[in-house]
Amino acid sequence: MSKGKSSKTSGKGQNPLQAPRGTRDFYPEDMRRRNWLFAHFRSTAASFGFEEVDAPMVEHLDLFKRKAGEEIVDQLYHFELHDRHLALRAEMTPSIARMVIARQGAMRFPIRWFTVTQNWRYERMTRGRKREHYQWNMDVWGEPGVEAEAELLAAMFTMFDSLGLDRGKIKVRLNSRGLLEESLREGVLSDRPEVFAPLCVVIDKIDKIGAEAVTEQLCDPEGGVALTALEAARVIEILSARSLDEAAKFAAVGSPAIAELSQLYTLLEAYGIADQVPFDASVVRGLAYYTGIVFEAFDAGATLRAIAGGGRYDRLAETLGGKPVPAVGFGFGDVVIGELLEDEGLWPDLKPEVQDIVYAFGPEQKPAAITVASRLRRAGRRVELCLGKSKLKRVLGDAGKAGTERVYLIGEDERARGVVKIRDLAKKAETEEPIEG
Hints:
BirA Bifunctional Protein, domain 2; 2 domains; elongated; 20% strand; Rossmann fold; alpha+beta; 7-stranded mixed beta sheet; single chain
């Protein structure tokens, strides 16, 4: 397997007993956290009427190239096998689009789908960015109105609320690619509308490299945009708008994009989240397939990368060879939100979910212990049967720390009498019951 166009690995400096850089092992305590977080993803999506879907982790390389362009190849884990050029999925949206196109003629729109998937992308690692991550996606296909955006943003804040993040800890910055395109094509790009997509790629970096560096790239005659200094200054001025009133100054009279944003904010007000979603004209999302409203979620202190991001991509199905279908969605990664929960002290103390422990004092009592454990499991209890020659003191100590409810004890006296001793750890009381129940 390789990343990039033709890179090969020699194995030098690699330790096969360590996970590859940018990937993670999940030990039991890590899995408890992951499962807890994913349960919040799924319960939030379900509460909004979304259904879960999935797709192969391996797709044809061309699917990602059609969606994002040739430049994406350098970030993909891709390989050739039996004359097929395949890639590990870097994101879920192309797969979802492929699934929609496959049944486009038979589907009843709009559809509400969500996914929780593992994705791979070879990137420079920073805090909150790894080369593999899990991502929660929610997508609405077949609804052209901003009701879909409002529903998705409401779901996102429902998720934040369920994790214990107070309002104000997260801000979702909102803009419209349509508004930006309207504003630029009225002036700066009136004679060169085709430059809009590469221009968005450049200005998407403004938070990372600053306005001065963005201006230099916009004016670079070899950079694909090649604006004059005055044109670049106008672009930076447009990006500085922080309210709809400010943005309207750069838009045409009767701008459809301004009207659409106003309608969206009315809906967000009804959801009670409008004050948590500030307008920010600098948010453009660098991917070329976005066509309308776009948004990104950040911690209020801006100490981390984007927690989530998304927007409208009405032309994606058409780009991939299907019929036009309006669509909007977001991706919400597990890594950054995990960092934020850690910073805020919001990870719960998650114990192993063992309700009962069954302990035999010697090998002669093991068959009876198995009988008890099997009976409890059939009743729906989560049961650990002690294996080998575990010491009772250690078993009881571990059970107390893990929040185990009961310990079942079988010695020779209990076996002979056909009973099992039950120690209730919370009540600190002991009772007996027949081994057979």
